[in-house]
Amino acid sequence: MCARADRHGGSGGRQNVHRGFVHGGRPGGCRQADGHGRRGVLHRPLEQAHRAGDRRHRRRGLREGGRAGDRDLVPPVASDRALRAAGARGDGERVRAAEASSWRSDPQLVWVGVFGAVFAVGLPVANVLGFVSDYYLNLFGKYLALAILALGMDLIWGYTGILSLGQAIFFGIGAYSIGMHMMLESSGKGVYGEPVPDFMIWNQVYQLPVFWKPYTSAIFALASSILLPALLATVIGFLTFRRRLRGTYFAILTQAIAFAVWLMLNRNEMKLGGTNGLTDFKSVLGFSLSSAETLRALYVVTATLLVVALLLARAIVRSKTGLVLEAIRDNERRLEFLGYDTAGFKIFVFAVSAALAGLSGLLYAPQVGIITPSQVGVLPSLEIVIWVAFGGRGTLWGALVGAISVNWLRSVLTGTYPRLWPIILGGLFMTVILLFPAGLIGLAAQVKKRLTGRRGAVARAAVAASGVNHHTA
User: Fold this and answer.
1) What is the CB neighbour count within 10 angstroms for residue 451?
2) pLDDT at position 459, please?
3) DSSP 3-state assignment of 279?
């Protein structure tokens, strides 16, 4: 009756929530057994077997990679070697020093630095020297802005296991917020010379609507691009996660909200441009968008903020909060049984992902020069899911690789086969699901494992052969 409780125990502390969690089933209906106190019914032989299974799981995850993100299930915040070098496991100051040393020596940070050097410094310098054209620099700026959007999706879906089909809503809020400010900056410079955007004149609106007036301030526009999506996500999360809405039901709800927002934006009565959206941006924050220097500066800002967003996301997933998020993904009910407020953690990560989506829209709109309802609906939200799945969810790097590679394919193929792109995108998604569900990052890990295994086998055979020859001699 209480076999599951026997295997996994009832306590163990919050700091050990991930141990046993990745192996455990559901909490079941067992309570503490008589005579066992707070330790529950966890017997010593079962505990030893559980620990052995935990070690085997971690070794297997590190060797094989498992599904995307298994390498990070128990992240080496401070290795055993670093802790031994610190002198004592129980010494808090030395342990923290060991953790800091492990953080500084982490090779992943080296890759972040290389990524930032190539995209934030290398490409702009190549553009100034004439090796990269303004067109391609602007194109890469769009890809990097969308990569920030994919990062947020990976946090909420890849690490927490919450499939949101409404991320394009938050992207659209960020894009429309900065777009409204840019439209007001261009007021008086349009065809009609009126102090309102030209599309309002076409709809016989001659006075600026009340909700447009705050966007005359650049500070308000920039802040609302990030804070409004986070606030909306917090409200949605509170109303859903606190009511224990999860899984498919949450995905359907966010999809319905995205569809409703798309319908609203298509109506001219909303005074947001209708189906044409907001376009004909002439300047941003006082800088002309027709200037190559302005577009280069936008690119540098986008690349820099992408690196910052990557470091922020990485800090979250490597923290104790990140372990709880992964635990929610693997077995939320067991985590609730241990006393964690899973709804609060989900609201937090949902708000962070929405803020990143708003930042993405803020950076995307000035570089593209237009924002329409077609970019704020159900289909764009599904595309974001495909980016993350293609690159490899639960890895962060997979989100970047997927967003950049899929959008590059879109730029290449839509010029030749514009009507076939939705079919190609669907086929790409099916290929990922059927052939390499861990995405490109997982595929690369498998290839590396096979190559490493072959080299190890050859080396062992060579050592064995040399030993035999030496013994014979």
Assistant:
1) 10
2) 60
3) strand
